[in-house]
TrEMBL record:
SMART domains: AAA. This is ABC transporter ATP-binding protein. Residues 4-240 form the ABC transporter domain. CDD domains: ABC_Iron-Siderophores_B12_Hemin (cd03214). Gene3D superfamilies: P-loop containing nucleotide triphosphate hydrolases (3.40.50.300). It comes from Bacillus salipaludis. Pfam families: ABC_tran. PROSITE patterns: ABC_TRANSPORTER_1, ABC_TRANSPORTER_2.
């Protein structure tokens, strides 16, 4: 089932086009991860789909409606986004910041309800930030702040959550903690998760569906076994990768790689391999 998809969207900044005529489908109630090299359009695509930035042409459809014409509060009850570099929360306590996730459910200047407080406290607990509730956000470490921003996104109680590099600033243990949390939300509450990740092995391990971008175009989309292959990684990252299997998850993993230089005869392979946009879920 697909509730969210783009239809030939073009996105740019000024005269520079980042994404051109791109059509992608986001599987419902699955974890979708977008991968690709720096500057390929991953974050730009994520922001456009979530209506953070406008697109020049095309449409983004959610539940049969063009999101460009949807009411902001209605849309905010369906999707939440954690940007790569969240805005400053100077002067706010952790609890106050997380409470902003309840904005779509409030009327005017009404106070937080009992239900709001329950959701806020739940979001703090599941992200391991309840002990920081009354501390200033500015006083936290980078990793702690990241978990607080995720708590705010969770407090929004949306069916779809977008995250742009959610493991930024986190050590290995906290990266795993965040990704396992997102996986639980997907499996136990059937939340649709869409995120950008740089770590290919994390992407393959946690995603049900991968989208590999290069220069604003989809090179390959599908399950991790279809996308994390030597041929696709050559096309997307210009690397010669050795792919094995994770002994704990049986998912593909990049064991090692070299940067390809000079003659690139490998690119003479059938390019149709990279443009198979079939949805397998």
């Amino acid at each position: 089932m697909v509730r969210l998809y783009t239809n030939e969207i073009t996105i740019g900044y000024g005269d520079r086009v980042i994404v051109k005529d791109l059509s992608v489908q986001i599987p419902d109630r699955k974890i979708t991860t977008i991968i690709g090299s720096n500057g390929c359009g991953k974050s730009t695509l994520l922001k456009a789909i979530s209506r953070i930035i406008p697109f020049q042409s095309g449409t983004v459809i959610l539940d049969g409606k063009n999101i460009s014409q949807e009411n902001t509060k209605i849309l905010a009850k369906k999707m939440a986004i954690l940007p790569q570099t969240p805005e400053s929360a100077s002067g706010l306590s952790v609890g106050e910041l997380v409470s902003y996730g309840r904005f779509p459910y409030q009327k005017g200047f009404s106070r937080l309800t009992k239900k709001d407080m329950e959701v806020i406290n739940w979001a703090l607990e599941v992200t391991g930030t309840a002990c920081f509730k009354y501390r200033p956000v500015d006083a936290l470490s980078g990793g702690q702040r990241q978990r607080v921003w995720i708590a705010m996104a969770l407090a929004q109680e949306t069916e779809i959550i977008f995250l742009d590099e959610p493991t930024t600033y986190l050590d290995m243990a906290h990266q795993l903690e965040v990704l396992e949390l997102l996986q639980r939300l997907n499996r136990e509450q059937e939340r649709t998760i869409v995120m950008v990740l740089h770590d290919l092995n994390q992407a393959a391990r946690f995603a049900d569906y991968l989208i590999a971008l290069k220069d604003g175009q989809v090179m390959k989309a599908g399950q991790s076994e279809e996308v994390l292959t030597p041929l696709v990684l050559r096309k997307v990252f210009n690397i010669d990768a050795e792919i094995g299997k994770d002994p704990r998850t049986n998912k593909p993993m990049c064991i090692t790689y070299n940067l390809l230089k000079g003659d690139r005869k490998h690119e003479k392979a059938d390019d149709s391999l990279y443009f198979n946009l079939s949805v397998n879920y």
